[in-house]
Design goal:
binds zinc ion; alpha/beta; 12 helices; binds glyceraldehyde-3-phosphate; TIM Barrel; 288 residues; globular
Amino acid sequence: MPLVTTKEMLKKAQEGGYAVGAFNANNMEIAQAIIEVAEEERSPVILQASQGAIKYAGLDYIVAIVRVAAEGATVPVALHLDHGTDLDQNIKCLRAGFTSLMVDGSKLPFEQNVEITKKVCDMAHACNIPVEAEIGQIGKAEDTDEPGVTIEKTKDFLAKPEEAKKFVEQTKLDFLAAAVGTIHGCRTPFAKLEIDLIKTIRKLTDVPIVLHGASGCSDEEVKKGIAAGISKINIDTRIRMAFVGKMKEIMEKNPKEIDPRKILGPAKDAAKKIVRSRMKVFGCTGKA
Ligand code: G3H
Ligand code: ZN
C-alpha cells in the first residue's frame, strides 16, 4: 500500500497501550529487513532516515527504496525524518514525500526551539503531515558507553514537564520526543527511564510521546515506558550492531569472499531478528 502518515498509527498505539517501532533505515538491506518483518509480524511500522542517512544515500534514493518496499507491503508503512535540525532539511523531506517530519531544535534556547518547531509545524500541517519535536536534550553516548558516566549525562538534560506542556501548546506539534533518561548510541541496555516524568508529561500533554535512544533500554524498561505513556520507540544502534556484526563475522570466517550478497544477505537477516524482537516487546505485532 502507499505510504501512510504516522499520525493515525500513533493515535491507535496511544489508545491501544502499545508502541510503534521507528527503525532507522541506513541502506537498502536494512530498509528491506524492516518492512519484511513488519509484513511477517502484521505490524504497522515507521522507517526513519536521519540527516546522515540522507547525506549518505541521497534523499531521492531513500524515498524510492522505502516507497517501493511499502507499496509491496500490506501493512501500514510511514517514512519519517529523524532529527532534522533545520528548516531546509524539513522542507526538502516534505517535498520529497516523507509522511512525517522531525524538527530537532533541542540544542537551542527554549524560545528558539519553539520558533523553528512552529515554522515546521505550520508548513507541514498545511500538507497534512505531522511533526515530531524534541524537548530536553537526548544526547549521544559517543565513545562513553559506560553505565555510570552515561546515566549521569542524561540527568542534566531531562525534559521539564511545564516546559513540555508550553512547547506542545505553542507549537501545535504532533509527537513529543522527550528526554526521559535515555541517550543515543548505547551498546548495552543500562538506561533507567524516568517513569514518573513520562507519566507527568503524558498527563499534561495529550500528544504521543516518543522514546529516543531506545537501544539502551532493557525489555523491562521499554515495557514500563510504554505503560507510562510512550507510543513511538526509535531504534538504530541495535540494528547497526547486528548488521555490521554479522558482516564482520562472515568476512573473518571467509576472508576470500568477494560476493557482497553473501555478506549483506546474512547481515539483513541479523537485522530482521532485532526488528522482530523489538516489535514483540513494543506490543505492535499483530496490530496492522
Ligand atoms: O533517533 C534515533 C534513535 O533515537 C535511535 O537511538 O541509536 O540509541 O537506538 P539508538
Ligand atoms: Zn533519536
